[in-house]
Amino acid sequence: MAAPSTAEVARVSRGGRPRDPSRDGVIRAAILRLLADVGYGALTMDAVAAEAGVGKATIYRRWRTKQDLVVDTISDLNREEVPTPDTGSLEGDLRQIMHAFVGVVNGPTGAATLSLLSTMPRQPALAEAFRNGPLTVWRQSFEQVWQNAEARGEIDPSFRTSVAAESISALVVQRWLLTGRPVDEAYADEVLDTVVLPLVRNRVSA
């Protein structure tokens, strides 16, 4: 019998009832909408129940506190949205993953994440859930891209820890978080074509 995952252990330790898959997506979507609309401070479990169209008991049976509810939601963010591309080339893989990132930024997950950024420094459990959830998911996806590119001989093993690798999402994140300017696929393509791919080629030819 397989050992329970870390996420499953965490949920059991909080005393929540096992999730009903038929309601899971509806409740998660309601939580993200409310986080984007009112933020963590004004979020209530009763409001989540009303937004999701479920009884209050459904929410309270699953989570003891608001923090448990949000931590659980953050832990699962991006798991179904992040691709593990294998197009046959590093350029194709990076373009696919960047486009996926743009989709997340502009969707409910991106809006909820923005609302939580100011809260995380005061809520260590939320910050940890964000690091172990969505950030880890994206990091693993990029790691697979690097492994595939190394196997094809497009990059050497040192590339994944280089500044060039860090730059791939940095400009998109900067525009999203700091400037408020639109983040779309055209911008992601521009970053890829004018910054990232030239850096990759320079490292390969060096």
Rg over CA atoms, rounded to whole Å, is: 19 Å
Ranges with pLDDT <50 over ≥5 residues? 1-16
**Major sheet: size, sense and barrel closure?**
none
Along the chain, the helix and strand elements come as HHHHHHHHHH
What oligomeric arrangement do these chains adopt?
Answer: single chain
Q: What is the overall pLDDT average?
A: 86
- Beta-strand percent range: under 5%
Please provide the count of β strands: 0
Q: Which outline best applies?
A: elongated
SS-based class:
mainly alpha
Number of helices: 10
Helix content: over 70%
* First-residue to last-residue Cα separation: 50 Å
Describe it.
- 72% of the residues lie in helices and 0% in strands.
- α2 (21-42) packs across α3 (45-52), α6 (90-105) packs antiparallel against α10 and α9 (163-179) packs antiparallel against α10.
- It starts with 5 loop residues before the first helix and ends with a helix.
- The model is unreliable at 1-16 (pLDDT under 50).
- It is elongated and about 60 Å long.
- It has 206 residues and is an all-alpha fold.
- The longest helix is centred in the last third of the chain and has 28 residues, at 124-151.
